[in-house]
User: What shape does this take?
Amino acid sequence: MPEQAQTTTAAVVVTVTDGDTIRVTLPEADNREETLRILALDTEECYNDSDRSQKEIRKGGKPITNLGNRAKERARDLLSKGDSITLIFPDSSPIETAIDKHRGNYGRLLCYVELNDKRDFQEIMIREGWSPYMSKYGYAQPAERHFTYIRAEALAQAESRGIWSYRVFNGERFRRYERLLPWWHLRARVIETFRAYQTQDPQSKILNSRIDYEEICRKAEQEENTTIFTELRQMTLLDSEKAIVTSGSGKQPFKLFIPGMYSWEGQKILRLLEHRYLTTGYDGSTVEKGGTNYAYVNGPLKLYNGEPEITITKACQITDAPPQRQ
Assistant: This one.
């Protein structure tokens, strides 16, 4: 079956923030400015141009490193202010829909970038060792792009380029890619299973908490029973009896509400989340476990303070696979 065409739009570079984040204007959307979080890349952190004293600070659990600074410089070599580039979204939805739904935790657009000479920006950055092939949020689409990035990463590793020779460049401050990559691929396989299920059963009622957020909110207004595929991010204790699990993204908040933590079933729910899905503790610290974070959650939706949530009273409401259709 031929690959489906992907949605594209023109953009003009405004500035490069770091190796995987840029700001652009969109001529086809009234020249408004947008920040892009470029898919498939995860370069190391760099200092802000206005304050280079930050180079010992850790941002979001990642160290600010020499390679992060050099990745930004390389991105600026490839993406100069005023350059015309093409943004490619990972599906074929209308451009207005693509711009609306393909956004990350901080509201940034999620897309691939094609340079004005038609070269693939992601492939260059991966091939030169400025970034791993970041599959944490699913493999690149279509399949040929995924295989291109796999090959580019393997060649960079074989030649010890950039991050694959991190001790040479960064000294004692570096990321443990040998731990990150297996976890990313585990998560990606879970996402690929969901994508395959949606393709095989397009009439399914399973929603994605990121892509189908508006529909989730509509169903919550009607308090409909719904199955949602979502990323379980962190558990927070509300009091001695209740907890919430933050899901979805910061811009598209969705929660699981656990009302009876110390009941027998509540304890089963907590153990399931802790051992199988969550990779952060109650305080936001990273837990050394291999949880995928992703799960199918089923239950009655409702709005609480204007945000959708599902009440979890049984462990069987959280599963690795979509529930069987009746």
In short: The radius of gyration is 21 Å. The chain has a mean pLDDT of 87. Residues 44 and 271 are 34 Å apart (CA to CA).
